[in-house]
Amino acid sequence: MLSTVEKEQIEHEIRQVPVKKAACIEALKIVQEHRRWVSDEGIQDVADILEMSPAEVDSVATFYNLIFRQPVGRHIILLCDSISCYVMGLNALHEELVSILGIKYGQTTEDGRFTLLPNPCLGTCDHAPALMVDHDLYRDLRPESIANILEKYT
Amino acid sequence: MERPLTQHITFPPLGLRQYEAVGGYQAARKAIRHMQPQEVTALVKDSNMKGRGGAGFSTGMKWSFVPMNVQGPKYLICNADEMEPGTFKDRWLLEGNPHQLIEGMIVAAYAIQATESFVFMRWAYKVAAEEIRKAIQEAYDAGYLGKNILGTGYSLEMHLHTGVGRYMCGEETALLNSLEGKRATPRSKPPFPQVSGLFGKPTIVNNVETLCYIPHIVNKGADWFQKLSLTADGGTKIYGVSGHVKNPGAWELPMGITLRELIEEHAGGMQDGYRFRGVLPGGASTDFLVEEHMDIQLDFAGVAAAGSRLGTGTMIVLDDQTCPVGFVHNLEHFFAQESCGFCTPCREGLPWTEKLLWAIEQGRGRMEDLELLESQTRLLGPGNTFCALAPGAMEPLQSALKYFREDFERHIKEEGCPYNHHHHHLHSTGHEHLHR
């Protein structure tokens, strides 16, 4: 069930658009912001308030890279895997992350601290290679800087 | 040399009053108070401004297709999705001078008599989103947005929409679907968005760099714009370079500077120990240019004559230490992942292409695979797919097969990658897992 806050926020988005359905992505973002990921129940909640079928909501949810349909950790690491970062040392960064965290792309550490994901181009190619942890961007990276960065996130 | 787009870029950016103090919002005042909407469109058409998002279509021409005598809402959308790999120019403009973009949007919206406007921004641009949000609020507070702007009776609302990640959102009709809360699949054209766009209403979608130029054209005129350039494609252009060059970055330069000048002077040439082999001139979906093209002029016509596209004007350099097969595999992995799956050649053909390249890179390739790849570049080329994603994906591949053929053949003959670097295992991507 949607919390009061979720409901208020989604209703605010509905008022911005000419048809309820058009608030679908915003509603999914709101649910994810509060619950970290969008469960089947979350899909049903969004479907109910927007008067859509759950399947239709799920078709939108699964289309977008950054709507998560499985549980994720407290912090999301998005490693840029596009071309400029590839040229500038992506592979070494990836290996360092895998060795520190002990997880592959798409997995979450056992303590629930980090989820590691590849992300197409972060748009900071003159400072490649780059990654984001949650909302923070890190650029001009070397493998040896990774451990220090991760320490900030508990 | 004049740098109209970037001269007032600061970090943090100018607030509204500071922006006004350097001449900001004069174009909005001039256009809304003293020009007819059609006059603004005619001026932009006269300037021969070509869209900076990658396609290079005449901006004024695009605006002129909007029906002006219809009632009801119309929309102006700024495409700030900037997801073309290797592209980082719009981020600079968004973070460094948000009011310049908002003023450009107000003038463009006035020209087509739009009632509502959106900035469609990618998820990753957190700083840019914050600056744009602040600047929109300041513009409302100062009376440049909202009802009855500057007492003229013209009204315009502006919203910021931040996306949830998908390359397809950069395609303008897919962007419209995404703004309507749907999957970002492309729409069939016609009808073009200018006639039937967002929620079926007349809509213009323009790139950030394009819209940022509009206030300057209104202030200084079409001739001034034309004279900034070294060629027939007017204006300055933001060019960027990434890869193993000494000084990667972005610069506002006259349209039509040579590739040599950009790489050698502005980007400082190659880093020590690296040799130049080629460059994608305008993002991931453009054909390679090589040494023989160093003296071409970087405008829309010049790059097209050399067999590629100016695209976004942000270049990715391939050096002699980086495997061209691995390089192209990285690109095709991206395109295969980002295909929306809506049309069959793209959905099926791109993963096949990626797998062929991966097999070659890992030493499991056969000579026949090169012919197969060549046939893919035709089968996934223009005219065979619903939108430009797959044809764009084929551009770096077809030119790599042409210019770096000996590298592909060596991988096959030597049953492995001759370059001394680690392979990045891209086949299992997290997003597939998270989507079950």
Automatic annotation (TrEMBL), chain A:
Q: Which residues bind [2Fe-2S] cluster?
A: 80, 85, 121, 125
Free-text cofactor note: Binds 1 [2Fe-2S] cluster.
Please tell me whether the keyword Iron is annotated for this protein.
Answer: yes
Gene Ontology molecular-function annotations: 2 iron, 2 sulfur cluster binding; metal ion binding; NADH dehydrogenase activity
**InterPro entries listed in its UniProt record:** NuoE-like, NuoE_dom, NuoE_N, Thioredoxin-like_sf
Alphabetically sorted, this entry's keywords are: 2Fe-2S, Iron, Iron-sulfur, Metal-binding, Oxidoreductase
Q: Which residues form a coiled coil?
A: none
* Needed cofactors: [2Fe-2S] cluster
CDD domains assigned = TRX_Fd_NuoE
According to its UniProt record, this protein's enzyme class is: oxidoreductase
Task: Give the record's family classification.
Answer: Belongs to the complex I 24 kDa subunit family.
Name of the protein in question: NADH-quinone oxidoreductase subunit NuoE
Which gene is transcribed and translated to give this protein? nuoE
UniProtKB/TrEMBL annotation, chain B:
The record, for Gene3D superfamilies, names: 3.10.20.600, 6.10.250.1450, NADH-ubiquinone oxidoreductase 51kDa subunit (3.40.50.11540), NADH-ubiquinone oxidoreductase 51kDa subunit, iron-sulphur binding domain (1.20.1440.230)
- Pfam families in the cross-refs: Complex1_51K, NADH_4Fe-4S, SLBB
Catalytic reaction equation(s) = a quinone + NADH + 5 H(+)(in) = a quinol + NAD(+) + 4 H(+)(out)
Molecular function in Gene Ontology: 4 iron, 4 sulfur cluster binding; FMN binding; metal ion binding; NAD binding; NADH dehydrogenase (ubiquinone) activity; oxidoreductase activity; quinone binding
Transmembrane spans: none
Q: Report domain NADH-ubiquinone oxidoreductase 51kDa subunit iron-sulphur binding positions.
A: 325-370
InterPro entries listed in its UniProt record: NADH-UbQ_OxRdtase_51kDa_CS, NADH-UbQ_OxRdtase_suF, Nuo51_FMN-bd, Nuo51_FMN-bd_sf, Nuop51_4Fe4S-bd, Nuop51_4Fe4S-bd_sf, Soluble_ligand-bd
**What is the required cofactor set for this protein?**
[4Fe-4S] cluster; FMN
Could you confirm whether the keyword Metal-binding appears in this record? Answer: yes
Return the PANTHER family for the record. Answer: NADH-QUINONE OXIDOREDUCTASE SUBUNIT F (PTHR43578)
Q: What does this protein do?
A: NDH-1 shuttles electrons from NADH, via FMN and iron-sulfur (Fe-S) centers, to quinones in the respiratory chain.
Q: What is the protein's given name? A: NADH-quinone oxidoreductase subunit F
Q: Which organism does this sequence originate in?
A: Chitinophaga barathri
The gene name reads nuoF
